[in-house]
Write a structure and sequence with these properties.
The complex is a heterodimer. By secondary structure, chain A is mostly beta strands. Helix content of chain A is 15%, strand content 47%. Chain A has helices spanning 9-19, 72-79, 141-152, 211-217; strands at residues 2-6, 25-31, 34-40, 46-53, 59-62, 66-71, 87-92, 98-104, 111-117, 126-127, 135-140, 157-163, 166-173, 176-183, 198-201, 205-210, 226-231, 237-243, 247-253, 256-258. In chain A, a hairpin with a 5-residue loop joins β3 (34-40) and β4 (46-53). In chain A, α1 (9-19) packs antiparallel against α2 and α3 packs antiparallel against α4 (211-217). By secondary structure, chain B is mainly β. Chain B has no helices and 2 strands. Chain B has strands at 2-4, 12-13. The N and C termini of chain B lie far apart (32 Å). The chains are: A mainly beta, B mainly beta. β10 of chain A pairs antiparallel with β2 (12-13) of chain B, so a sheet runs across the interface.
């Protein structure tokens, strides 16, 4: 038996919106400690990770570990039937064929219940080790979304250069080229405002990435004020959005290589 | 030409 309650449906809506463009169907692994999801996009270039800890839910029960295969488009459609501040409960019995999702209004006078069919999804999973990144950029997630949008007007690829001075995003295309530099601020405090950027760096590092994937990652911006971009030479770049006090979404993107 | 490698090439399968 699985049962998980979140006080506000808006959080679950934002989580599903953040990954459904990249991943059409995914296995949700429920265990005593929480929920995990790992999925690659169709082209196997980007990897999405979701981790929600049990203590982030207002109620959480998982009698035995269970994997539920869910079509994210269907999940998203059902979540659109919830008001943002509805309480949401998800429930599945052992060997269930569907996931039960119910919404309760704040006044507790309206309760709706939906069932989404579960599916068997046969996918390869990978083991992602903890890495010592050469550079970590911590910046406003809104700013990240804006830069991705701006760069996409010019090019298809983006180069991220992290140095002690800051982080530079650049692109080029048939129409021309452009770059945006965010200068490193030593401390991120109230005075600097939430838009400031910090770059923790061991060695300067540069990566070229496909912008269309970053546009998908930017859909996680409503979940978190900040995003961290973690770079290491010759390895995927990791983008992390923290989900309040309960977990994170991480996206890994393989770098582009010039031939 | 730009080559895009598969993410699976970087991580071991479980």
């Amino acid at each position: 038996m699985i049962e998980a309650v979140l006080p506000q449906a808006s959080l679950l809506k934002k989580i599903i919106e953040a990954i459904k463009e990249l991943v059409s169907e995914a296995n949700f692994d429920f265990s005593e400690t929480g929920i995990r999801l790992q999925a690659m996009d169709k082209s196997h270039i980007a990897l999405s990770f979701l981790h929600l800890r049990n203590d982030g839910f207002s109620e959480y029960r998982c009698d035995r570990s269970q994997t539920l295969g869910i079509n994210l488009e269907s999940f998203s459609k059902v979540l659109k039937c919830a008001a943002n501040d509805d309480q949401v409960q998800i429930k599945a019995t052992d060997k269930a064929e569907s996931l039960s999702i119910s919404f309760e209004s704040t006044a507790k006078d309206r309760v709706s219940e939906f069932n989404v069919k579960l599916m068997d999804i046969d996918i390869d999973s990978v083991d992602v080790p903890d890495m010592d990144y050469q550079a970590t950029v911590n910046m406003s997630s809104q700013e990240f979304a804006r830069i991705v949008r701006d760069m996409m007007t010019i090019g298809e690829a983006i180069t991220i250069d992290a140095t002690k001075q800051g982080v530079k995003f650049s692109t080029s295309g048939d129409a021309g080229e452009g770059n945006i530099l965010l200068r490193h601020r030593k401390t991120i405090d109230e005075e600097d405002g939430p838009s400031s950027t910090s770059v923790e760096i061991n060695e300067p590092v540069s990566h070229s990435l496909a912008l269309k994937f970053l546009a998908n990652f930017a859909k996680a911006a409503p979940l978190a004020d900040r995003v961290s971009i973690n770079l290491i030479e010759d390895a995927p770049v990791m983008f992390e959005f923290k989900i309040s006090d309960m977990g994170h979404i991480r996206f890994y993107l393989a770098p582009q290589i010039e031939e | 030409d730009i080559l895009q490698t598969s993410i699976a090439a970087y991580f071991a399968a479980t």
